[in-house]
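Reopening: structure tokens for the FE2/S2 (inorganic) cluster complex, inputs below.
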Amino acid sequence: MENEVSRRTFLQWIIASLSAAIGLVLGGTGTGYFLSPAFKKEDEGWIDVGSVREVSRGAPVKLEFTQRKKDGWMTVETRSSAWFLTSNGRDFVAFDPRCTHLGCPYRWDADKKQFLCPCHTATFAVDGRVVSGPPPRPLDRFPVKVVRERLQIIPQALESGKA
Ligand code: FES
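Re-run output (same inputs, fresh job):
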């Protein structure tokens, strides 16, 4: 008789423990879902693009990076790029790689020290100003910062080039 009582007690203890474990898992998941926006990192949206050492002073460098976007249950990866420039190795500028006329990709001409857009023969100065051609404004820029010698940008926060 004493064995039956202790077996019953044991089974009740197991069931209570499993219920508590399930409750903790479900409660933690639900709480995390509802509270996560309050604890989101301030720097969300910044993407690591590469080392500051990849950009030499005075000569723009095009760096490629991968963007990951959640679409429902899927994560979609896209390759993008940006042109980086620094004059002192501490402060950096990141240009959108699309021309501000009709979006063609431009390139850096080291001899002329200008960006050249082949679509309608536009040229931009090293600081992004329009030198010639039809573009209505300077090159657009990404917000950029340096964290532990790494370049980071926010690709979705493109800042329009100011004329
Ligand atoms: S798209 Fe670059 S000049 Fe037209």
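The helical segments are 2-35. The chain has two domains: 2-39, 47-153. Marking as resolved unless the reporter disagrees.
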